Amino acid sequence: MEIITRQQRMASVAKKLRRDNLVLGFVATMGALHEGHLSLIQKARQMCDQVIVSVFVNPTQFNEETDFEQYPRDLTADAEFLSPYDVDYVFAPEASEIYGDNFTTFVTVDDISDKLEGSSRPGHFRGVATVVTILLNTIRPDFAFFGQKDAQQVAVIRRLVRDLRFDTEIVVMPIVREESGLALSSRNELLSESDRAAAAVIYKSLQAAKEAFENGEKSSGNLTDKVSEVLDSEERARTDYIALVDPNSLEPVEKVGDDPVLLAVAARIGDVRLIDNVILNEKQ
Ligand code: AMP
Fold first, then answer.
1. Looking at the structure, do residues 80 and 119 belong to the same domain, yes or no?
2. Which domain holds residue 237?
């Protein structure tokens, strides 16, 4: 496993691999690696000849300076975490390597970037779309792997890749959870032990709505009320949003029909903002 810190080196290595007709798989991460990242890496390993993992805490997708500063970073631990998994390259650039002097070009995926997470975190998806564009242009992978954990990010990246004709296929993997149901996230490291236990309420609230749906409840209002009721039962939780939306357009759905719908939640547990979601009517 080679750790690459220079953008040009990453681009030339990837170019050579493509010339050798190898199938390239790419997993973009912000580090603090866990089993959720691992499921993407393992899928990449199964599908591709060469696996490239980026570890880059992207400054342009943070809208709060303290959130950016507090984000966990430990490249040595990440490299150790990856060592058993047959990853070929880790791309871990400094911010200045990605955003050099006079960097003024940003990619905006209109409309869907402003909803849900976008309304709480203005500019977040502009930062995501921009860095993903730079990473895809550097590596030009055949496949790029993303987690359903960040459902809106998936919608934004699918749209970006479709609209700008990136020659990369997007593969989405299911959410990996702790035994308590809490979705794995690098941000979980910031939770105290008691807050971590309290955070399990987020998935419980989604499960309660999913159960109600499976028992015949189709009304958006009733399903989101169910989520809200369970979240409110945990005094450490403060709800940011609960939304029942189309997974691609992110437009609100009033009544669940035959198509898959995304039930997404953001909540703060103490100072830590967490997101989670389930799909209702998921097609197998
Ligand atoms: P991050 O390092 O948080 O930017 O995440 C990098 C990638 O891993 C993104 O595509 C995430 O959606 C994915 N990911 C993070 N946590 C999970 C999880 N618990 N289950 C599945 N994928 C995840």
1. yes
2. 186-279
284 pLDDT exceeds 80? Answer: no
50 and 143 share one domain: yes
Cα-to-centroid distance, 185 and ligand 1 (Å): 7
Chain Cα centroid distance, residue 167: 20
Q: Distance, CA 102 to ligand 1 centroid (Å)?
A: 30
Over residues 164-219, the pLDDT tens digits come to 999 999 999 999 999 999 999 999 999 999 999 999 999 999 999 999 999 999 99
pLDDT value of position 183: 98
DSSP 3-state of 262: strand
Instruction: Tell me if 181 is assigned to some domain.
Output: no
Going by CA atoms, what residue is nearest to atom 7 of ligand 1? Answer: 29
Which residues contact residue 55 at a Cβ distance below 8 angstroms, ignoring those fewer than 6 apart? 29, 30, 31, 33, 75, 78, 90, 91, 92
For residue 53, give the H/E element and its range.
strand 50-55
Q: pTM here?
A: 0.97
Q: What are 79-94's pLDDT values in tens digits?
A: 999 999 999 999 999 9
Mutation probe of ligand 1 site: the residue of 40, 156, 170, 277 with most atoms within 8 A of C-beta: 40
Give which of 241, 240, 237 is closest to 252, Cα–Cα.
Answer: 241
